[in-house]
Amino acid sequence: MKSVRRFVLLGVFLFVCVTPLPAQNDGAFANGQFQFISDGAPASIHFSARQRSSGDSGEIAFSSDSLTVTVDVDCVFVAGNRAAMSGTITGSF
Fold first, then answer.
1. What backbone torsions phi and psi does residue 80 show, to the nearest 5 degrees?
2. Of 22, 6, 26, the residue nearest 14 (C-alpha)
């Protein structure tokens, strides 16, 4: 009887650990980076954002020789291979 109980508990444990939760997988996402020249100096933008039923989230970072800006994403729209993001600037230096 104890071995059956342990087997059932092990099965439940494995099911909970292996089965992805729906909240982890809902919604589209966009991430990437690109480099360009700004005022003759190299600059880059890195972004990562996800749409979720509990709310959109992510981050955008712009950096160049003279400026770095970070943005907390609060709105994401993904259509095919294109995405639009918006958010609040949380840091600049």
1. 65, -125
2. 6
What would the pLDDT profile of 22-60 be if each residue is shown by its tens digit?
Answer: 445 568 989 999 999 988 999 999 999 999 888 899 999
Whether the CA torsion 11, 17, 20, 23 is positive or negative: it is positive
| φ, ψ (nearest 5 deg) of residue 9 | -65, -40
pLDDT higher than 70, residue 20: no
* Residue 1 DSSP one-character state: -
The residue among 79, 81, 80, 84 whose CA lies nearest residue 47 is 84
pLDDT exceeds 60 at position 21: no
Give the DSSP per-residue string, 2-48: HHHHHHHHHHHHHHHHHSPPHHHH-S-EEEEEEEEEETTEEEEEEEE
In Å, how far from its chain's centre is CA 5?
Answer: 40
